Q: What sequence folds into this?
């Protein structure tokens, strides 16, 4: 954000200024731990934590002003608005509108899974070409997206926007803050099924991102996912297709696929990035540094988006080859003494992402004769009435791949029952006891996979303490 007076922010956000008219910026922080001198601190009330309670800490860290919904005793200017998320969104809209006029290109991505990994790959392809703003972690919500937009300054050429949803209309609203020029739908799966009610409703919500495109934009769609492919009529923008299965959409002016896919012992993919763009056909070798065969589809989506933004196939391939995992707890490998490998995939979980993680471990086992693996599987949240069946299926899938199961959480018994029904070994423990249970085991590979609320990421440090770093 270009630094500006607190009174100017108040006018944009529809609020009133209490205190001195300080110069504020460039940083905007939602967490008092991330405040730097001059920051605007946004106090967001939540179910567990209310940012207003940390206004004193933010002021002590140097916040020049705070966006609040009621005045709080603290030594900094305060901009009082009816709703701090709405106020932050108004500020972000203003910043984005000004940046659009300067030539900003906004690339937005959604999907049931893979959004965060994809936006990280995309940002690393764009950054060598021009200044790029991309979300921190999974900032894809009604406050995460506008917070990302506020990082735009006068030099920013590209904005990468990750857009998540837990209901119809959510993505459409996010697109009012950062209208996309290029928008991709990766897939339609079962994440947040309990909140949406049906996969059809999930598809309806994800497609809102391409409905927001201008006719001069680009819709980037997955040719391998029928629910995504069916979205093409929902936009007047031209469609660019991507396919990890090398499915060529013959009539498409822009198409990206992957051929000759190979996987190493860590499930890192090598392939030929192939396709067709305005400059002609291309065939570029790529080896990814991120883990999981599912990253091939993400890479193809990234390539299509970057080509739509004007990059060459050579620039895209170079970016993909150099890109690393930036966001924490997503198939992050932790190698420990004794040849042990812990895969920390504990940021989030849904039936599709659990299946992808288990498949990756299964391939690792196949590439490492004699190795053994256990999947520590916690709850997949927000699945509604279908939750028990999906948890049993996860246990069955693990057992079918030769992976033992340690189940934790509300649905632990369902996970274990599924594994045992498929002939696998399974135990149930409390989350606090996971590291103790694993300590005297000899598994070569340990997968930690659950929704964020389970907190399995804490097990990694505990295992480091027990097994040595």
A:
């Amino acid at each position: 954000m270009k630094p500006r007076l607190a009174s100017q922010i108040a006018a944009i956000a529809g609020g009133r200024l209490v205190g001195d008219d300080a110069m504020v910026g460039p940083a905007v922080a939602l967490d008092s731990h991330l405040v730097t001198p001059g920051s605007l601190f946004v106090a967001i009330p939540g179910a567990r934590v209310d940012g207003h309670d940390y206004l004193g800490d933010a002021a002590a860290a140097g916040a020049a002003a705070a966006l609040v919904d009621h005045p709080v005793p603290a030594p900094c200017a305060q901009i009082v608005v009816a709703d701090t998320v709405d106020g932050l969104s108004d500020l972000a809209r203003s910043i984005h509108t000004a940046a659009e006029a300067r030539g900003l290109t906004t690339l937005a991505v959604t999907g049931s899974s893979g959004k965060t990994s994809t936006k990280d790959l995309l940002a690393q392809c764009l950054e060598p070409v021009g200044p790029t703003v991309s979300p921190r972690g999974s900032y894809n919500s009604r406050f995460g997206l506008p917070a990302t937009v506020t990082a735009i300054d006068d030099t920013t050429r590209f904005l990468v926007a990750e857009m998540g949803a837990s209901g119809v209309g959510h993505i459409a609203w996010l697109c009012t803050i950062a209208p996309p020029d290029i928008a991709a739908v990766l897939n339609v799966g079962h994440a947040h099924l309990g909140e949406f009610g049906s996969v059809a409703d999930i598809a309806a919500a994800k497609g809102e991102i391409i409905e927001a495109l201008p006719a001069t934009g680009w819709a980037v769609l997955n040719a391998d996912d029928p629910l995504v492919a069916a979205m093409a009529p929902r936009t007047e923008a031209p469609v660019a297709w991507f396919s990890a299965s090398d499915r060529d959409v013959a009539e498409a002016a822009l198409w990206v696929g992957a051929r000759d896919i190979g996987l190493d012992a860590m499930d890192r993919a090598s392939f030929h990035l192939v396709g067709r763009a305005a400059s002609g056909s291309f065939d570029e070798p790529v080896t990814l540094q991120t883990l999981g065969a599912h990253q091939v589809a993400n890479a193809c989506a990234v390539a299509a988006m970057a080509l739509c933004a004007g990059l060459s196939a050579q620039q895209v391939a170079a970016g993909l080859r150099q890109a690393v995992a930036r966001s924490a707890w997503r198939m992050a490998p932790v190698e420990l003494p004794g040849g042990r490998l812990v895969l920390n995939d504990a940021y989030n979980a849904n039936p599709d992402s659990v299946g992808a993680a288990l498949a990756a471990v299964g391939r690792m086992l196949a590439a490492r004769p004699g190795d053994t693996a256990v999947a520590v599987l916690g709850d997949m949240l927000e699945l509604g009435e279908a939750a028990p069946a999906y948890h049993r299926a996860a246990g069955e899938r693990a057992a079918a791949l030769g992976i033992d199961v340690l189940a934790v959480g509300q649905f632990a018994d369902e996970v274990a029952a599924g594994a045992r029904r498929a002939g696998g070994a399974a135990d149930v423990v409390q989350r606090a006891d996971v590291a103790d249970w694993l300590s005297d085991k000899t598994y070569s590979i340990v997968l930690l996979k659950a929704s964020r609320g389970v907190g399995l990421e804490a097990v990694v440090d505990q295992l480091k303490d027990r097994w040595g770093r």
The mean pLDDT is 94. The longest helix spans residues 84-101. The chain is about 35% helix and 25% strand. Residues 111 and 186 are 5 Å apart (CA to CA).
